Amino acid sequence: MNTISKIITWKRNILASLAVLLILTVLNFYGVYTNKFYFLKPDNYIFPILATVHFLYLYVVWFKISEDELPDPKMRNIEYVLYAIMFVYVFKIYDSIMVLNSIKEYGEHVIPVTFKPVATVILVLYSILPILTIYTFWLRKRYVGIYNFENYNDNLNIWQ
């Protein structure tokens, strides 16, 4: 894991996660079957709302690593919420596979030429997102520290 952490540093991981989240947020409004964007469907806003928690966690990890701070309960709570959001990411991978495989069912219908490339890109990005997220958890544990709040006040020295 040390060779991976030398290639994919914590900054690169966070920037890659930001890029993947931003691209997926935009593509979440895209309809692969119709080649149009749908901004009025309430379902399309679920992923961007959940992604804001991920953005917040990435910001907190960046701040904690760059300022060399200890983990706090708020950071832990955000990470625990992100654990639950990981199930949504796994569902989105499954959903993307189903959409990509549905081309066989709709073969006689008019499907845009952008269907297969865009659906493949969406699937790849959704597959990369949990990997980057788990790697971020590992980086948090390595650079920020573990969540040990039992003797948190004993180790807190405000005069440093």
Description:
This protein has 160 residues and is an all-alpha fold. The chain is 68% helix and 2% strand. It contains 6 helices and 2 strands. The chain has helices spanning 2-7, 10-27, 46-67, 73-101, 115-144, 152-155, and strands spanning 30-31, 36-37.
Summarize the structure.
This protein is mostly helical. The chain has helices at residues 2-7, 10-27, 46-67, 73-101, 115-144, 152-155, and strands at residues 30-31, 36-37.
List the helices and strands and how they pair.
Blueprint: H1 2-7, H2 10-27, E1 30-31, E2 36-37, H3 46-67, H4 73-101, H5 115-144, H6 152-155
Antiparallel strand pairs: 1-2
Q: H/E order of the elements?
A: HHEEHHHH
Secondary-structure class: mainly alpha
Taken from the alpha-carbon principal axes, the silhouette is elongated
Low-confidence stretches: none
The amount of helix comes to: 55-70%
**β-strand number:** 2
Report the β-strand fraction as a percent range: under 5%
